[in-house]
Design brief:
This protein has 573 residues and is of the alpha/beta class. The protein contains 20 helices and 13 strands. The protein folds into 3 domains: 89-329 and 340-374, no CATH class; 379-453, no CATH class; 484-565, Recoverin, domain 1. 41% of the residues are buried. This is EF-hand domain-containing protein. GO terms for molecular function: calcium ion binding; lysophosphatidylethanolamine acyltransferase activity; O-acyltransferase activity.
């Protein structure tokens, strides 16, 4: 039996967000949930139902339906290489026939790298590079005689392309004058595009800090007066945007080249654009790159660099097409064909929306020219998939979540998604990347009790008795976004803490679990759950510990529902 105290006014905020459409439910349960839980025979979960008849989070809001559903999963996989393996007899015969040619190409590749590196070393000798000078007064343009010397490296770059089988490259259109379009943006399919643009334009590029330490490559990109950026540091991103703006504004610098997707794709989709190229507000010239092929997909997707290079060396010829679109500015919007203009589009007054719409317009024009579909996947999805590959999972594309949409809708950062992924990978996903309820709760040291089943059903909106990482991430994000969530977390701590220590100890946590009518846990299970909540590992769950752990794993708030609602569980013997 339970007695209920009046709940705090702060906990009466409707939980359902605008982005989720309510669906009628039956007796508090989702109409499509048909799990064979013996709910009628199992004891009432004190605080788990919270008046919702089966909704473990109903205590957060009286009006929240028990069912929710994110938008449908996109079937697109923008990172999958079409020919990652060896394609049978044809490829074997071609490799044998081209073996002497491949050996000659490898020699040409090595000589080109050596000559280009030597020329670059001479061009940079005695000149303070970007990294040293940027901290003092800002990098100045490379002197003219040094730029002329870099032509040796640029010709070496063309020889490298030749060694990879790009004997000729089909071009459509030509670069606009730098004064008209100081920023160039391109789709990113392979490591070939940076080599091509280095030869064709010798631009300034935006590059990850880590590339500076790569042998040969680091020296060459320094000659391009590279703009370094740590994509996970807001301060670094802001500094990079300022540097893009400064160099784009000065005609003494070369064009600024950016790949706004932030990573390579298979060329059959465009992923979400980063906004660094568009925040400065200068006209940009979109360039699209295609690699027509029959037997060999040249994209750098789920294929190792060594295998990709070997396949390029053993091709008779690799095709590459470069189309240059009309320069793009904030005042115009173009759909490909090359000569068709649309009415003037004026930028919004808010600068951030300005960059957003500018990026969207450019992305749409490039997608239309490529005849591909723009998607809500982003660089974060490639990181998620790479981590799944590293963990030895199969069908790793099943772990992708459309990170750009998740971030826009729920405000979840890539680092937060990666932290949740670590937990999900420890739950023993099957070959399809799905986790069942038993493995889900075992990771936290809990048995699959009636309350735990109800919590799991919150994620399992498809009623498949297993969930994907996408469902796990979006379900957590949806809970965390609710206006009453933070108040509920604070109330949980205040009503569970030891008044003498102002911490939640093992005894208090055990009382919480008993009040939720969970089954008796083993000592190992209790210790596992306690360590999950004790973030700083100081043998006590402080308020900061509980807030941090519930922010990361918000579904755990259901374990504290009885205390939040003031319920008292009385065991009748």
């Amino acid at each position: 039996m339970a007695s209920r105290n009046p709940s705090p006014a702060s906990l009466s905020t409707p939980l359902l967000s605008d982005s989720i459409s309510p669906t009628p439910t039956t007796n508090g349960h989702a109409g499509h949930h048909n799990h064979d839980d013996d709910d009628d025979e199992s004891p009432t979960v004190c605080g788990g139902d919270g008046g919702g008849g089966g909704d473990p989070f109903a205590f957060l809001s009286e009006d929240r339906p028990a069912w929710w559903s994110p938008r449908g999963v996109s079937p697109a996989d923008p990172f999958r290489n079409g020919t990652p393996g060896w394609c049978g007899a044809y490829e074997l015969v071609r490799a044998l026939v081209c073996a002497p040619v491949a050996a000659a190409r490898l020699v040409l590749f090595g000589l080109s790298i050596a000559v280009g590196y030597a020329a670059t070393w001479v061009a940079l000798r005695g000149w303070v590079d970007v990294r040293e000078r940027a901290a003092q007064e800002g990098a100045r343009p490379m002197p003219a005689w040094r730029r002329r010397l870099m032509w040796i490296t640029r010709i070496s770059a063309r020889c490298i392309l030749f060694s990879f089988g790009y004997h000729w490259i089909r071009r459509k259109g030509k670069p606009a004058p730098r004064e008209l379009a100081p920023i160039v943006v391109s789709n990113h399919v392979s490591y070939i595009e940076p080599i091509y643009f280095f030869y064709e334009l010798f631009p300034t590029i935006v590059s990850s800090d880590s590339h500076d330490s790569i042998p040969f490559v680091g020296t060459i990109i320094r000659a391009m007066q590279v703009i370094y950026v740590d994509r996970f540091s807001p301060a670094s991103r802001k500094s990079a945007v300022n540097e893009i703006k400064r160099k784009a504004a000065c005609n003494s610098f070369p064009r600024v080249l950016l790949f706004p997707e932030g990573t390579t794709t298979n060329g059959r989709f465009l992923i979400s654009f980063q906004h660094g190229a568009f925040i400065p507000g200068y006209p940009v010239q979109p360039v699209i790159v295609r690699y027509p092929h029959v037997h060999f997909d040249q994209s750098w997707g789920n294929i190792s660099l060594g295998k990709l290079m070997f396949k390029m060396f053993t091709q008779f010829h690799n095709f590459m097409e470069v189309h240059t679109l009309i320069p793009f500015s904030l005042e115009c919007k173009i759909f490909m064909s090359l000569v068709e203009y649309l009415p003037v589009v004026y930028p919004p007054e808010i600068k951030q929306e300005n960059a957003l719409h500018f990026a969207e317009n450019t992305s749409y024009a490039m997608a239309h020219a490529l005849n591909v579909i723009p998607t809500s996947y982003s660089y974060g999805d490639s990181m998620i998939m790479a981590r799944a590959v590293e963990d030895g999972k199969v069908n790793c594309s099943n772990y992708m979540v459309e990170m750009a949409w998740v971030k826009e809708t729920y405000g979840v950062s890539t680092s937060e998604a990666m932290a949740l992924l670590e937990d999900f990978l420890c739950m023993s996903p099957d070959k399809d990347g799905r986790v069942n309820a038993q493995d889900f709760w075992a990771h936290f040291g809990l048995n699959c009790t009636p309350l735990c089943k109800k919590i799991f059903q919150y994620f399992d909106f498809e009623a498949k008795e297993s969930i994907t990482f996408r469902q796990f991430l979006i379900g957590c994000a949806h809970l965390r976004k609710q206006p009453s969530f933070q108040d509920a977390c604070e109330t949980a701590f205040e009503r569970c803490r030891n008044p003498l220590t102002s911490h939640i100890g093992r005894e208090q946590l055990a009382d919480v679990l008993r009040s939720s009518m969970l089954e008796l846990m083993t000592d190992n299970g209790m210790m596992k759950l306690f360590k999950t909540l004790d973030v700083d590992d100081d043998d006590g769950i402080s308020k900061d510990d509980l807030m941090a752990s519930l922010t990361k794993l918000p579904f755990m708030i259901a374990l504290f529902a009885g205390r939040i609602n003031g319920e008292v569980y009385i065991e009748i013997v």
